[in-house]
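Take a specimen:
=====
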Amino acid sequence: MDLGTTTDCPHIDAAALVKLTSGPGIIVERPWYFNNLGVNSGTDTFGVTTPRKAYYFAEADSTNAPKAGQPDYNTFVSVLNPSPTLNANATITYYTGSCGASGQVACPTQQVSLIPMERQVLKPTIGLGYHNKFTISVVPADNPNIAERLLYVKDYVATAGGGTTRAIMGGCATAAGSVCAFAEGYTGSNFQEYFELANFGTSATTAHIKLEYTNGSTQTVSVPVPALGFAQPFDVNFAAAHPSNCVPASCAVTGSVSAEITSDSPIVAERLMYFHFGATKISGATDVVGTPAAHSTYAFAEGYTNRPFAEFITLQNPTGSNETALVTFYTPSTAYQEQVTVVAHSRTTIDVDVDLAAKGASGAVSTLVQAQGAGAVLVAERPQYFVFNGGQGGTDVIGYTGN
């Protein structure tokens, strides 16, 4: 559904509720293209199926550049009260890495009060005047609500091909966890990959990042994560260039890499990736929160393969056995299927543009990924790169699992 807005129309604040009135269940995503704060790009995220009473964001930054050419980040938190009858109140807490613990100042907070069906947008630089890196929790005081984080990025990342001005959306966890899995990841030319690790608990912990490559090689790196704070961004490119603690010991790393992050106590983990993709060097950044468990089925509503869009499905097998995925592509006119084998503790990539072109199809496509066999599980993501309406960038989501 096209809402009829354009990237250069007057600014409109809007949230959306999609309610199914009859028939079987559906999957809903929101691709969004825009030109705002000097950023001409786009984002994508799945809708929240159940309003929650807690949201956590490991990646947030409001480092404002004092002059042109320096990093300039702007973080916004959108909160929606989906109830048609009840008011909702929530506290948004910004964890700066030096607040909240014994002997430290209290962490800065903002309060939001929402009448039924109301949406508000908050920004830590307004009112609080905070201009650094942080993490966020959104905790409703009474009734469940829906929260998202939008981050506008202007930065120069030499290992990702230079300057980029893009935006990332979503990236929330509704609970901290001890396992976070990511199917996508790339450390090749003009890509820079990081993991952002946040600890919302009152005791320090240790995260164990297991990187899984396309050939079945793995390496594991342990990272301390302080209480009520966050670790320094974990540089996946550096780990690829300096492998250690590998299985097998020779550790033949590849540019494509998945990850399984475990921790001694619950944390929230996100993967932030900057890039200049392909021959035309489409610039942008994506951010994804890890899934707390591998599943048997993943669904993707969004997808588009006509150039200059480029769509991929990435599959991670975190288990000790080879797994087979049945992948179904749904186009407006028909459906196509293929089977893909994913080696134990490895990652594989499906080029959707190429696969559909071989079948004589292109354009809009939705995708269903199903692990085959009793107890079989995988992790599936859909990175997509685009040039659209004068803007460019990339989006990435882990597939919808029904949770």
Observations:
- Residues 29-173 form a domain with the Hypothetical Protein Tm1070; Chain: A fold (CATH 2.60.290.11).
